[in-house]
Design a protein that fits this description.
304 residues; single chain
Amino acid sequence: MQGVALKSEELRKLLSCGCPDAVTLYLYRKAELPLETALDALHFTVPQMVGATDCLRQLGLWEQAEKSAPQPERPVYTDADLNRAMRRAEFKHLVGEAQRMLGRTVSTEELKTLLGFSEYLRLPADVIGLLLSYCVERSRRRGVRPPSMHTIEKEAYRWADENIDTLETASFYVQSQLQVHTRIQQLRLRMQIDHRRLTASEEQYLISWIQMGFPDQSIDLAYTRTCENTGGLRWAYMNSILKSWHEKNLHTPREIAVGDAAPAQQPNRKNAAYQRHGDKLTPLAQKAVQDALAEGQEDEDGIQ
């Protein structure tokens, strides 16, 4: 890191903050080094980076440029626009990072798309760097090839729409999404799906169950009950079990054991008319389940 000069007020604030990570990040930024590579260069974890930027913000030492409203429609960038952008050290460095992360040379049209992230969506360079890193890591975890620029562009628009436009918000988002993806892969193995990748609809089911607040053990219970009642994994049936528990505010195995326990058998015929989880299915009920599963399978096939 090259030498930097600090004003007395900056030095006083840094010495009083009690956060070594904040001091390191501030010196890195004062040296005018690219923020999109700060995580790697400083060997920071995402929580460290968020904590350091939050500390500097409280000290008044972290200023984020004001975003102006984007144009109604994305402009069509010309080669001249691209050449002008490439003369900026920040954009040129971003191009180099994109090519390094994707493992290939980026085409001219892809460079224009990248320019749109900066000039049209108004995403800061450090956020674009994190966006690229996140998209590449997500593909790696899914076991697929690096993402296309079109895929990255769709994610960039979503970030812009959801105001994920600062290093702090982007870091929190990336960390939470990667944690969800790690959990999805763990659940996939717990459900004995180890010979193939999940389909988009299957992954969405898992995401919805995680968002409902179910721990792994509760999802295991629903999986076991589904297999016992239907003879295998049926996503629509399993989803109905978990949605039923969620609507009753039953999430942990203990809550489920108490709140979803089968009531004691009653001698009257009125109670016998209702099928409960865990009851042995009658031939008529088995046919009803098969018909419902056939319907659910058609729905899942339609989603895919």
